[in-house]
Design brief:
There is one protein chain. The protein has about 110 residues and is mainly beta. It has a single domain (about 1-110), classed as Jelly Rolls (Sandwich). About 5% of the residues lie in helices and about 50% in strands. It starts with a strand and ends with a strand.
Length: about 110
């Protein structure tokens, strides 16, 4: 499983079940590659609650980036900041990975 962004190939972990999507990056100290959330098309909201590392959060619809939130910082149990966008997938990368990416860029998600 892989993701191709800006000509670079990233190993990908795919989250498809409600439990996997809910858990996401909570409690993890590292992310090698990226994490892909299969969401179904719609408006989605993510937060950094209980995350331990900063992330770039990318919303994707039909293989095109629709929104990028750069350098999303971890927060504690009281955080209420949400990162929203429209798409059928959301991809999380270690912070800084998407610094050269922009809305409208193509991203390939391989299962």
């Amino acid at each position: 499983m892989a993701v191709i962004l800006d000509g670079k190939v990233f190993d990908a972990e795919y989250m498809t079940t409600p439990e996997e999507i809910k858990q996401g990056m909570m409690g993890r100290k590292e992310l090698n590659g990226c994490m892909v959330f299969e969401m179904g098309k719609g408006h989605h909201s993510f937060w950094m609650r209980k995350c331990l590392i900063p992330l770039d959060i990318v919303f994707v619809n039909k293989g095109t980036i629709t929104k990028i939130h750069h350098d999303c910082q971890p927060c504690d149990l009281d955080c209420d900041k949400r990162y929203t966008g429209i798409g059928d997938h959301v991809v999380e990368f270690p912070s800084g990975t998407c610094k050269d990416s922009k809305v409208g860029d193509r991203i390939s998600l391989y299962y």
